[in-house]
Amino acid sequence: MQIFLDTANIEEIRQAAELGVIDGVTTNPSLIAKEKRDFIATIREICEIVDGPISAEVISLNADEMVAEGRKLAEIHENVVVKVPFTRDGLKATYALSQDDIDVNMTLIFSPNQALLAAKAGARYISPFAGRLDDIGQDGIAIASQCQDIISSYDYDTEIIAASIRHTQHVFLCAQEGIDIATIPFKVLLQMMKHPLTDIGIEQFLNDWKNANK
Ligand code: E4P
After folding, report:
1. Which of 36, 72, 83, 214 is catalytic?
2. What is the position in ligand 1's atom list of the atom closest to the CA of 131?
3. CATH fold for the domain made of 2-212
4. For the chain, which residues make up each domain, given as ranges?
5. 83 is catalytic
6. Whether pTM exceeds 0.90
């Protein structure tokens, strides 16, 4: 499974990239706004740190404007993936951008039928939001998995990105379900590394070593 980092924070991206476990980065307007930095400069800097797909989202809601915005974003760097929200205009824009060989990540996907339409319109990536589905009492990972099953059954050049990942159990379930990609916050990446028995084991090894070498 590929792991993307779901953040626009340069320091987090730098630290995660050093670990060699990050395959790409996703941002959204909320994550960009949180950093209070220039959007284009931030995306460019992320592309210099991580050599993989970097999602940058359009903010227009009209198809023609999404396409114009998407084309500009795609000019920042060859690894930029244009993130487009799932709407009727978003589908139209996705189709147009994909016809120009611009990779699109269709975002705000909440059902397998939306995922099917996104794939047919040419989306290179499709992002079902697991955590937000959990928030309304649905099983977010199960729905992401249904999206994955449908896309994998056909010959689409499309990968599923499980998004809105909130905790380590989400990541484990994505891997167990064979979901292509999980995009995870830095905090969840740190939590994935932790196990109390690892800490106890290190302490014990070091104590035994010290006692034997007194
Ligand atoms: C990533 O593509 C999404 O924008 C992100 O995972 C949304 O996460 P949230 O539901 O925690 O805001």
Report:
1. 83
2. 10
3. TIM Barrel (3.20.20)
4. 2-212
5. yes
6. yes
Residue 132 CB–ligand 1 contact under 6 Å? yes
Q: How far apart are CA 123 and CA 115, in angstroms?
A: 9
Question: Does ligand 1 come within 6 angstroms of the Cβ of 27?
Answer: no
Burial 80-114 (b: 16+ CB within 10 A, else e): bbbbbbbbebbbbbbbbbbeeebbbbbbbbbebeb
Atom of ligand 1 nearest to the CA of 30: 12
Instruction: Give me the residue label for tokens 């340069």.
Output: 10
Residue 148 beta carbon below 6 angstroms from any ligand 1 atom: no
Element (H, E) at 169: helix 168-177
pLDDT digits (tens, 9 = 90+) for 116-135: 999 999 999 999 999 999 99
Q: Could you tell which of 4, 5, 6 is best to mutate to test the pocket of ligand 1, judged by most ligand atoms within 8 Å of the CB? A: 6
Q: What is the pLDDT of residues 6-35, one digit of tens each?
A: 999 999 999 999 999 999 999 999 999 999
With a 6 Å cutoff on the Cβ, whether 145 touches ligand 1 is no
The phi, psi pair for 52, rounded to 5°, reads -170, 180
Which residue, by CA, sits nearest to atom 9 of ligand 1? 164
Sign of the alpha-carbon torsion through 86, 87, 91, 96: negative
Q: What is the DSSP string of 25-93?
A: EE--HHHHHHHTS-HHHHHHHHHHH--S-EEEE----SHHHHHHHHHHHHTT-TTEEEEEESSHHHHHH
